[in-house]
Amino acid sequence: MKKLEVSTNDLDPSRRRSGITSPRSISRLESIRLGGTEQWIRIQGKATSNPVLLLIQQGPGLPMLNEAADDNKQWHLEDDFIVVYWDQRACGKSFRRAIPPQSMTVEQLITDTHELIQALAQRFQVAKLYVAGFSFGGTIAALVASRHPELVRAVVCVDPDVQFDVAERVAYEFALEQATRRRNNRALRELRRIGPPPHLNSKSFGTRARWVTNFGGTNRQATYTRLLLKTLRQLVLSRDYTLFDIVGTLRGIGFTQDQLLPHLVHLDLFEMLPRLDVPVFLLQGRHDYVAPPATAGQYYQALEAPKGKQLIWFDESAHMPQYEEPGKFRQTLLTIKQHCEADSAQ
After folding, report:
1. Straight-line distance from the first to the last Cα atom of the chain, in angstroms, rounded to the nearest whole number
2. So what's the pLDDT on residue 14?
3. Taking Cα atoms as reference points, which of 97, 81, 13, 111 lies closest to residue 322?
């Protein structure tokens, strides 16, 4: 694969493509049955002739539909793709009390994702989709691409979880070291109370996540409270959520984490995913203390990828480069699209 060159001279997200706007735009909220449960997607795009891009949210347990409006303002990907936002099983608008707890497994999430990709490919009469996942969503995207490469044009993994136990240890040690250095007694007390990882329930996981975030290891520009308030604002202002949906979204976060975290103890892409038969792009924040950059670099070196692989660093970001450096994220996705289209034309 020819090395991707992402220009830093054209990162203005307000730029629009010149020419006549296609009248065949799409903006739809739809329910779809995946793995036996009703789940919700929002499909947005300026032209139905554009390629399809499925976004898989970070988590576990976080919604995605609520971010559609803000994401497009930052990235403007709907100008160049048909973008599919998805509230996964038990997340956001897709939360239902009747969802069997035993269905909350990595294997089921892979199956759900495969079914959605198949449905979208049929819906838009395309052979392959672009799939981009954030954090744990990036891990699911890569696992699906490894099993069904015939459906994936390229997979983009943004700060994916590679080795869950290593990531937990790095995150906890970072939070504890920062709390000690800053003499933050409340953080020290709470971190010592949950003890070292594994943190396999929503309460202990949430405590660690809160302090890692407050110390800049998740997003260098926002505290935990600021990110939480942003999510709540998006939920309230979103056209896609009723009050019932908002309550379900908050319940779904804890439910998903409590059910899914115990399944992640042995998550290790070095063993589970040594090879990918699609073009793979790893996007990694330099200052990430949730998905360690060192592990990402080691995995990139070990990964066998005959269709090509690239590791793209975001030097000003922690775990959320898509929000911390949105202009570069947009341009990276556009460059990947151009790169893949050029390869297909040859």
Report:
1. 13
2. 41
3. 13
Q: Domain residues of the chain, as ranges?
A: 26-163+241-345, 166-224
CA separation for the pair 188, 203 (Å, rounded): 16
Question: 220-232, pLDDT tens digit by residue?
Answer: 999 999 999 999 9
Spell 114-140 as b/e; 16+ CB within 10 A means b.
Answer: bbbbeebbeebeeebbbbbbbbbbbbb
Note the pLDDT of residue 59: 86
**Which residues, 6+ apart, have CB-to-CB distance to 106 below 8 Å?**
140, 143, 260, 263, 264, 267
**Topology given in CATH for the domain delimited by 26-163+241-345:** Rossmann fold (3.40.50)
Phi/psi for 197 (5° steps) reads: -65, 165
Q: Which of 250, 158, 163, 160 is nearest to 198 (CA)?
A: 163
Element of type H or E holding 314:
strand 309-314
Total residues belonging to the chain: 346
- Provide the pLDDT for residue 21: 46
- Kindly state the percentage of the chain with pLDDT values over 90: 92
Asked if residue 78 lies in contact with residue 53, where contact means CB atoms within 8 angstroms, the answer is: no
Q: What is the pTM of this model?
A: 0.93
Average pLDDT estimate for 246-264: 97
The span from the CA of 203 to the CA of 189, in Å, is: 15
Residue of 5 and 210 predicted with greater confidence: 210
Output DSSP code: residue 212.
H
pLDDT at residue 103 in the model: 97
Nearest alpha-carbon partner for 158 in 141, 144, 181, 170: 141
pLDDT of residue 113: 98
**C-alpha to C-alpha distance for 51 and 288, rounded to whole angstroms:** 31
- Alpha-carbon Rg for the chain in angstroms: 19
